[in-house]
User: What shape does this take?
Amino acid sequence: MTKLVVIDDHEALRSGLEVLLSQAGLDVVGSAGNVAAGMDLVDHNEPDLALVDIRLPDGSGIDLTRQLLQRHPNLAVVLYTGDADAELLYEGLDSGARGYVLKAGSMDELLAAIHQVADGGSYVDPRLDRILLSPRATSHVPQLSPREREIMHLMAEGFTAEQIGDQITVSVETVRTHVRNVIRKLQARNRVHAIAIALERGEIQLESPSDGA
Amino acid sequence: MASDELAPLRKLVHDLRSPLAVVEGFATFLARDEGKLTEEQRRDFAQRVASGAADMRKLLDDAAP
Assistant: This one.
């Protein structure tokens, strides 16, 4: 069972999330309303995941995320915010958070995001796709390695992980590991999203039909 | 500047998100309940919906011209 903490300054929301997330089968081990208490909470409970509001009374949830990840590298952080602001999104993605969820979304979306991140994936609210795919946002994410680019290129061309493994002579598990790394690096929601970002950034290019003619 | 003129509205929209999430979350939970919640839980959750709505009303009243 995923062990998580909630860090949000809105008391009713914080206590509501504790109840709703517990009812949904998650192990909510505590909650806090500011940066200092949030740091303490994570240090003492060692949760798998922290759900962190961006605007906290004594600082930013994004700075808190950076500090938490320095001290607890295995912690998964999901930022939970009422702002669909581009600057905050860029900063949030740079902080190492693996999830970025808007309060405009439903509780079901929040739960889906938590499960996805707890399972090792990443999640960005689909309402932010327009910002995410802008050239400015895509220039913020780390560069792919040549091997990662090669694999994403083949994936964009429609090859399966097995076929790619055969083609570049590595195991299918290695291909999957590279794809997971790319998804994380690009802060993508899934493989398709990662391909879209890689294409947008010019990391990979699709051959036009006339190229092969 | 146009962006400054919109700042109060942006703040209001931001501030409404938290109580709205409470209202939406608990109302959905209550609507989906198939008789598993105790009477006490139902009352608690309904009270949270009412409090969330009251918070939203206050935010809107305070922002009204």
Q: What stands out?
A: The interface with chain A takes residues 13-22, 24-26, 28-29, 45, 48, 51-52, 55 of chain B (CB under 8 Å). The CA atoms of residues 19 and 52 of chain B lie 5 Å apart. Chain B has a mean pLDDT of 90. The two ends of chain B are 20 Å apart (CA to CA).
